[in-house]
Recover the amino acids of this structure.
């Protein structure tokens, strides 16, 4: 059966999700009883589509193997499986044909096939550089608290999860409110995750323009709109959260003024695309 680029992308995502679900059902993937098909399928879908919804806590329910599977699915979903497959084509020095270029262009939302392979190289390199920098910063922040091995794993996992806007976490601090709530006033964790989320959500087409066009006025209309609307939503949303929650003891009411502003900005950033939480969102006021 001949598949159009759009159908090939859809089938590819379906196969990735089913393969991920199969791996998550293995006994080695779970702490305790192996996951059932529905839980594994939901988790695999949420990770591949970088949604962040979970039916099982990522740390307490999945072993390191299971967490690796989830992280691989997040990276696949964030980059796109066709982009990842290109890595293997390039590593094996195989020629990328016209059909593959068509699928790549469609998957990346690029209007032209001209230079698409070079564009993919830049996307891959940029992704690993940004994720690596984020992982390194988080590693040094977690190092005194968890030791080298755990700090490295936490740094890598949360950097990829943030950059791909997935919102999965493995901190398991339910007593603090879940997610990254124990670091609600920590500037290193908050600002690093916020930067990764924003960089990942803007997309490489916008960053490519920023890199080659230093003046804002010379950016394309699309890039300017993305940047202005992103800034407006981040700071506008942060201001509204601070205004509405300033005296709410269930969320930010007990924090210092600086902590309240940081938590409000983090909430505004994470709700746009990511899915982390630095305080109990169930305690938010109705407004």
């Amino acid at each position: 059966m001949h598949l159009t680029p759009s159908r090939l992308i859809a089938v590819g995502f379906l196969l990735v999700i089913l393969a991920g679900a199969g791996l998550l059902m293995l006994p080695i993937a779970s702490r305790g009883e192996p996951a059932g098909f529905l839980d594994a399928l939901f988790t695999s879908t949420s990770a591949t589509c970088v949604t962040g919804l979970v039916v099982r806590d990522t740390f307490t329910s999945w072993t390191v193997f299971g967490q690796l599977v989830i992280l691989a699915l997040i990276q696949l979903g964030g980059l796109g499986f066709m982009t990842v497959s290109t890595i293997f084509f390039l590593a094996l020095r195989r020629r990328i044909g016209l059909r593959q270029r068509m699928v790549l262009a469609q998957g990346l939302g690029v209007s032209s096939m001209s230079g698409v392979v070079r564009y993919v190289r830049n996307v891959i390199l940029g992704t690993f550089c940004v994720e690596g920098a984020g992982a390194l910063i988080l590693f040094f922040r977690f190092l005194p608290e968890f030791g080298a091995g755990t700090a490295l794993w936490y740094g890598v996992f949360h950097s990829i999860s943030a950059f791909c806007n997935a919102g999965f976490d493995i901190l398991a601090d339910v007593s603090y409110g879940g997610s990254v709530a124990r670091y609600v006033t920590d500037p290193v964790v908050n600002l690093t995750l916020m930067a990764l989320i924003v960089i990942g959500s803007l997309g490489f087409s916008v960053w490519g323009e920023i890199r080659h066009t230093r003046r804002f006025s010379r950016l394309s209309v699309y890039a300017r709109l993305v940047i202005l609307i992103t800034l407006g939503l981040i700071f506008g949303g942060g201001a509204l959260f601070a205004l509405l929650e300033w005296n709410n003891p269930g969320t930010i009411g007990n924090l210092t003024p600086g902590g309240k502003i940081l938590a409000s900005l983090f909430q505004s950033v994470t709700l746009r695309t990511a899915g982390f939480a630095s305080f109990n969102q169930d305690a938010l006021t109705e407004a």
